Amino acid sequence: MMDNPQSRRTVYSVSELNSTIRRLLESEFPLLWVEGEISNLARPASGHIYFTLKDSKSQVRCAMFKGRNQLLRFKPENGQQIVIHAKPGLYEARGEYQLIAEHMEAAGDGALQRAYDELKQRLQKEGLFNENLKQPIPESITRIALITSGTGAAVKDVISVLHRRFPAIEINLFPVAVQGDQAAAQIINALRLANELNRHEVILLVRGGGSLEDLWAFNEEALARAISASHLPIVTGVGHEIDFTIADFVADVRAATPSAAAELVSPSQQAYLHRIQASQKSLIRYMQNRLERAEEQSHWIQNRLKTQHPSNQLMQQSQHLDDLGGNLLSAMQRLLSDKKHRLKYSLQSLVNNRPDPFIEYQKIQLGDLTRRLIYLSELNMTNRQQQLANISRTLQAVSPLNTLSRGYSICRDAQGRTVREAKQLSAGDIITTQLSQGEITSKVEKKRIS
């Protein structure tokens, strides 16, 4: 029995065929870089982009869906040479082979992007992007070196922000080209000049947005090394928020835009005023505390002078002498009273015993003792008075008031310090001379040092 050839055939429908081919294309081919010229560009309401990519010999239909084309940094146009990163596929409804683009860039940008990535990786390995190399931005900035185009929008935006936030900041503009073959060299010269002048606290390096090619001067290796070598801190504000240049990675601080860079280096005028007011209040409190402590110290010194003044010492010694005199009088009274009691006892004993010879002898003894007692009392009193006189003379001799009364004086300078030598004064100094009675204020005309 013969096999029917038709029983062994696999028959595809058109839909199955297109679906199978689509799966084969998508599974077998990775993402490819394809370069060509745009033609037949269409932008339907869906937001997708459809176009044909062609060269001198062939063409292929392409699609770029809305989620991907919203990331484009330029607007594709017919006739534009581009490079796409795409995956081959098949549009099943029409059985048309096409490329699904994931990324698109201008044809010239591809080489620039590769050069950018290579330089970034190499400088990163060298350590030029390390955070420990970054210089801090000073808190108080009075002068800014602004390096940018003298005619672009960026310079106007930066100056406007700085004048609005803190008009007192001095801005020195270093006009340079920010695009083109000479831009990097001019920026490097401006950085060198700003560092040599050494009169600014910070350098602002800014420019407006643009394509990768427009911003390429800020991706030059020579400029990156000049930024790294600057002893002044550098703040960059190049392009828009999504733009990152090599200069941004090397700079001490990167701001998203020129205006953001200006805000970063300028304090808020209102915040500065609040800080000044807070400092003023703190200073007032400090001075009040100092005055209170000085007043307390002055009272303490005055009280100490009162207690240690020579007149107080004399009063205390006089009081002590009075105490000694009172103690001596009490001792003498007790002694006399004791003697009287003993005399009375003796007389009573004499009366009782009537020993006439003994009485005469006792009378003589009593007379001697009385005279001796009087003599010793007078001698003791004389010695005490002599000690008091000696103490008084000693106190008078060391008393500054007594020295002043003998014609001497005390000379003090304008700060109240005692002047002991002529070399402490200079011509024109004001001095105060304290006399026994009153003070004299004088001006030094000349001095002589012996």
Automatic annotation (TrEMBL):
Its EC number is 3.1.11.6. GO terms for cellular component: exodeoxyribonuclease VII complex. GO terms for molecular function: exodeoxyribonuclease VII activity; nucleic acid binding. CDD domains: ExoVII_LU_OBF. Residues 128-442 form the Exonuclease VII large subunit C-terminal domain. It is an enzyme of class 3 (hydrolase). Residues 12-105 form the OB-fold nucleic acid binding domain. InterPro entries: Exonuc_VII_L, Exonuc_VII_lsu_C, OB-fold_nuc-bd_dom. Keywords: Cytoplasm, Exonuclease, Hydrolase, Nuclease. One of its GO terms (biological process) is DNA catabolic process. The keyword Nuclease applies. Pfam families: Exonuc_VII_L (PF02601), tRNA_anti_2 (PF13742). PANTHER family: EXODEOXYRIBONUCLEASE 7 LARGE SUBUNIT (PTHR30008). This is Exodeoxyribonuclease VII large subunit. It comes from hydrothermal vent metagenome.
